[in-house]
Amino acid sequence: xxxxxxxxxxxxxxxxxxxxxxxxxxxxxxxxxxxxxxxxxxxxxxxxxxxxxxxxxxxxxxxxxxxxxxxxxxxxxxxxxxxxxxxxxxxxxxxxxxxxxxxxxxxxxxxxxxxxxxxxxxxxxxxxxxxxxxxxxxxxxxxxxxxxxxxx
Length: 152
Prior knowledge:
By secondary structure, the chain is an alpha+beta fold. 42% of the residues lie in helices and 20% in strands. The protein is globular. Mean pLDDT is 85; it is low at 19-31.
């Protein structure tokens, strides 16, 4: 990919992101519909990824049906029995911030789904993001975006 094409692509993605941040651009229905406290597609938290592995292995790891634990109405899958045990001991330590919704979206007062491979641990807490662009926009000012998301 040439540098000109790459620059045009980055500019186009930036424009879409800026437009999405404007009030009224996001789906109007989303403000009217209730949002679940935890982002759990099909009842599985973190899209079926092991919430402990981010901390122990340092990468997103799919959980398996053999190792599950239901906590506060959401089923979490794990890669090992040891990770289930760690989670049961201290669930709050391993759960993602903002109920598993996109940290960048929260920082601009929006709700968005996540991609489990777009994540960061900051001060012992895990933050997930929606996509490559939202992760990198969020990462430009992690502490400021966390403070903004916490307020929202």
